[in-house]
Every structure is written in structure tokens, then in C-alpha cells.
Amino acid sequence: DDLEFAEDGRAVAAKSAEGIRIKYERRKRAAATLQRSRGEGGGRDPLPGVPPPSGPSAGGPVPPLAGLASTTFDDHMSPYVSLEERSMDERLHEAASDDRVDTRGERPVFVSSTGLFIYMKNSITRCTALTRERTFFLLQRAFQKKLR
Hints:
148 residues, mainly alpha, two-stranded antiparallel sheet, two-stranded antiparallel ribbon, 5 helices, flat
């Protein structure tokens, strides 16, 4: 089954009322963010009859600079990766002690494994919001080390 994930990390069936609500709220937030980044958004035209500015100064993307600011901090993100690694370690210890099994699907699944994968997904989402460079690679390596 398709799943949607609530803000608190809960998995919700995508075709349920709550799953549909989560999907549309996420789309609505993304559209509002896009409008804000473009400088749009319900205000009146400051100079009627004058065309709006265009180009990089109008809020359009500037491809050569994209991601430059986030990579500046990559060398200082090791505490963040360490925190995520410790959190992953705690989640693994909790999962190892939880032996509850969900048998509602085609195959039995440990309840703790679902929570662990949701945690990892949220962790990756948090990291990629900051950077997709070296820090993301280090986070992947930390998860790889913990899961072995």
C-alpha cells in the first residue's frame, strides 16, 4: 500500500482521508513556498502599468550559485552527523528490544522496523534540507555503519 507520512513521522495509508489531507497540505505548503520565493503572493502591483522586473534580480533562479551557501557549512556539520548517529543508535537499541509483530499485511513485519525506517526517512529529509553534499554522504556512511 502507498503511505503518506505525517509531520510527526506516523505512516498513514495514502488513500485514507487523513492520508489525502496530508498530501494536499504538503502540496499547498510547497506552492506557497514557491510563490514566496518568486515574490508572488497576493499583494497589489506596486507600479500599475509598469511590467514586473525579470531576470535574477526578480527572484528567478541563479544556477551557478545554487547550493554554494550550504556547501560552505559542510566542514562544520560533523556535530549534526554525530547527533543523528547517536539517535540512530538509540533507535536500534529500542528496536532490538521490541519484539511486537504486525501481521495485518501479506508478510509479518516488526513494528519497530517501520518506526526505524520512518526515522531514517525523516533524518534524510532533514539533512537534504540543509545540504546534499558531504554532510549527506557522511550521514549515509553513519547509517551504513550502524546497520551492519
